[in-house]
Amino acid sequence: MDKLKIEQDIVKVLKNIYDPEIPVNIYDLGLIYEITVNADAKVEITMTLTAPNCPMADELVESVNEGVRDVPGVKDVSINLTFEPPWDMANLSEEAKFELGFF
Predict the structure, then answer these.
(1) pLDDT 10s digit of each residue in the chain, 103 long?
(2) How far apart are CA 50 and CA 83, in angstroms?
(3) Domain that holds residue 62
(4) Is residue 98 assigned to a domain?
(5) How big is the CA angle at 46 (ends 45 and 51), to the nearest 5 degrees?
């Protein structure tokens, strides 16, 4: 099992999941805090949302769960939704800042 390859494939999947209210993928938005692939190919993802009362919370978490579960080599997925630390604009990648017109 190539943990690095699995993690890279997970990032590709996450870069294709979008918050419907923001035209930037959840990875570049900085909603993904941590991706852990253990020796048994079980994946744990710690993520947040742009706001605790996000109306799309269930859909986003389910999209991450389904997308990551489909990555070749992944045996199981666990998603930890957290609001500590809370998301803020500093989490945006350079690509996201460009896409949103912050440059």
Answers:
(1) 799 999 999 999 999 999 888 889 999 999 999 999 998 999 999 999 998 898 889 999 999 999 999 999 999 999 999 999 999 999 999 999 998 888 7
(2) 9
(3) 3-87
(4) no
(5) 130
